[in-house]
User: Which sequence fits this backbone?
């Protein structure tokens, strides 16, 4: 039982059977019920949380007052205990109509294959060659399936491939020669980062040529998810079962840190908001170490606490927090920024 100051907590993960069907969306194996830590009994079925946060989001907390008025379940229990009366059943719920399930869409392989070239025009690809040599750079490009995109000059495509080998999305990023994302200032003074998505770039390309969009792209634009999975998942296919996973926020950081710390399988969340139980499900049987950007340590600690409550073996590294300056912390430095900043220069033996 997870130690808590609350009497009612979400049931700790104890295998797939401890997750049941959601009473709202009906999805099996995604609903965690609340348990009474004093009696070890489960609360009425309605009280619990659906882990499908984006697609369902159902959560009935025993400490929350019902929208229709009256006492919360917890206060009702306390009142009935004082009066030595049986606890009344919770009022009938008016559950929202479950949303229609979204189709799982993927990007055709021929679209991906068309980007696996022209690395001499890929700013990140050139940076990897400069810093690590052609052999290591080519191995990283293959390992992470990096693509080249003409949406911006020198742009890189980070393909998001799920554990079943489906290409679920692709992020387009334009880096400068130092490996930092390019930015520009809009007329209103706001800053725009040169990051986008493959389906947007393709749509604009078809429109510029005056050509109709293919049917798969029309469907993907309507139903596709931008970032439905972690970046780098195909590495799990051939990795030893006991090899731990390290999670960072950006795809570039996962690639760079692979060179320096190969004892880990390096994956990227593509944003802190994507550090969710559903995306981490392929990692449930592995040890996970989170490497947050500088200044984000506390937020990732909070996320880790939630994940541990759901049965994940998660730790958070504070190594970056210990070595960055205050200015670097304010700038949100990540591990790649530090490692690339310490690069000693082009080794002469590469020319031998």
Assistant:
């Amino acid at each position: 039982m997870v130690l808590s100051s609350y009497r009612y907590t979400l049931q700790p993960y104890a295998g797939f059977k401890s997750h049941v069907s959601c009473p709202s969306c009906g999805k099996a194996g995604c609903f965690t019920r609340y348990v009474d830590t004093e009696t070890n009994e489960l609360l009425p079925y309605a009280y619990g949380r659906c882990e499908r946060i984006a697609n369902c989001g159902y959560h009935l907390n025993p400490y929350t007052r019902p929208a229709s008025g009256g006492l919360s379940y917890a206060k009702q229990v306390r009142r009935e205990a004082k009066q030595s009366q049986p606890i009344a059943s919770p009022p009938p719920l008016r559950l929202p109509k479950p949303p229609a399930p979204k189709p799982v869409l993927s990007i055709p392989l021929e679209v991906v294959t068309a980007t696996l070239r022209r690395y001499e025009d890929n700013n990140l690809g050139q940076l990897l060659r400069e810093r690590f040599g052609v052999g290591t750079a080519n191995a990283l490009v293959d390992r992470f399936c990096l693509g080249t995109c003409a949406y911006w000059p020198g742009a890189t495509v980070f393909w998001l491939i799920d554990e079943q080998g489906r290409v679920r999305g692709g992020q387009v990023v334009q880096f400068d020669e130092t490996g930092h994302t390019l930015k520009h200032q809009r007329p209103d003074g706001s800053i725009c980062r040169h990051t986008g998505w493959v389906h947007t770039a393709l749509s604009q390309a078809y429109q510029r040529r005056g050509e109709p969009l293919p049917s798969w792209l029309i469907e993907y634009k309507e139903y596709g998810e931008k970032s439905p999975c972690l970046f780098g998942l195909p590495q799990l296919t051939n990795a030893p079962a006991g090899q731990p996973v390290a999670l960072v926020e950006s795809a570039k950081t996962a690639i760079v840190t692979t060179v320096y710390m190969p004892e880990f399988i390096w994956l990227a969340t593509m944003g802190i908001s994507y550090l969710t139980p559903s995306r981490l499900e392929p990692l449930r049987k592995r040890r996970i170490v989170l490497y947050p950007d500088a200044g984000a340590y506390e937020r990732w600690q909070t996320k880790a606490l939630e994940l541990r409550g759901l049965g994940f073996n998660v730790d958070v590294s504070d190594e970056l927090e210990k070595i960055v300056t205050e200015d670097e912390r304010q700038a949100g430095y990540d591990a790649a920024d530090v490692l690339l900043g310490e690069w000693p220069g082009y080794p002469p033996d590469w020319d031998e």
About this structure: The longest strand covers residues 155-161. The two ends are 61 Å apart (CA to CA). The first helix runs from residue 73 to 83. The mean pLDDT is 86.
